[in-house]
Known about the structure:
The chain is an alpha/beta fold.
Amino acid sequence: MKLIISGFFIASMFLGCSEKPKKSEVVTVGQERPNIILLMADDQGWGDTGYNGHPHLRTPNLDEMASNGAVFERFYAASAVCSPTRGSVMTGRHPLRYGICHANCGHIKSQEITLGEMVESVGYTTGHFGKWHLGTLTRDTIEANRGGRPKFDADYAPPWDHGFDSSFVTESKVPTWNPMVTPPKSAGDVSGSLKEGQPFNTSYWTGPKQIVTDNLEGDDSRVIMDRAIPFIEEAVKSEKPFLTVIWFHTPHLPVLAGEEDRSLYANLSEDEQHYYGVISAMDKQVGRLRDKLKALGVAENTVLFYTSDNGPEGGSATGRTQGVTNGLKGRKRSLYEGGIRVPGIMEWQGKVQPGTIVEAPCFTSDYFPTIANILGVDLEKNDRPYDGIDIIPIVQGDVKQRNKPLAFDFQKQAALMNNEYKIYSADKGQNFELYNIINDPKEQNNLVGDEPEILSSMVTTWNEWKTSQENSAQENDY
């Protein structure tokens, strides 16, 4: 277990110390002991919520959560695909710092301090439910994308080895209905070797060699929540503060919805019925969770976050990829706004005012340092660079602008944004476009020729960040 000293930290620089860190110890000084729940959808677009103006989609529970807390007008996934973004949540650091470059690429390294380990070190019980996608879950059972295959043995990195007391997780994707059963190919992303009605060749795991075989029918979001709620109930009964990470598979392909949820959209196409249906089914489970927190008497002492791991898959022509970006350029796998700007909600009764609108840019790397500061954990003692910041002062209105830019690097793309501007490169940072992202969120007016000084300054900052990231990748932070 890696332990962390408590205190206060403001992440203001990209570059970490060159010396290797000293061993840390726990010194508890923080008085806040709220429960923490992180909810994440999979491939949900910026426009795929009722509160954000979708013409058909019904998400009454997310809408209520949004009205009762803070809505982020510019919330970003740290990458344009799933695994890297999830790594940013788990560590507060860009995933390329430790080798998670894409989906099914790399794993959480043992030297990284995970969110589970951080909160566990100050007395929290921890649970992870749903999609993991930060390493394989088995060395001896062939399943999913990498599990059990000798060439991926080094990528074995399950949640129970990284700070989570309880787990109910899959390595990667599963169908959104009957998650262990191969659906029709019309559901999308069903490989040719899989046969309809046969096993989907993946499993839910709760520990080493522990595969779940019961209560796996129907809506996958409900299947996940059926495991998360008992964990929360037990934590409350034991009077222990808890961290619960719930990463839904919805609405990642293969997309299927049950008849009850499809019926909400009976006047629309079959693909729309399934896509909107699975999001409404997930929303139902968000409502179930919030109701349970109230029934247990812990709603006012629980910090609840909601987001998506990246923008929507494909386009309408590819079938059940009906997600929308509300006109933003790009989709999943793109560092343009549509690929990384995602829904963002934070609810904390008594600490976050209902109806709060956050206009400053924030992203998934911010979760880790925000939670650290809530708990009084001093990240500075770890002597390693963090890419996120504590966003509580921004959410509570004490700070209006972000003091540190958001940096992105994915495949051949690069991007950096501050409170007003964004640079984007499609050729590994050789050439950049420049946009005033406040006035031009659709990235239609390239200002390269109009604002050379702003461009030069931001490119310099991105290059400095890249140097820091590459230093981390050489394991010089440990």
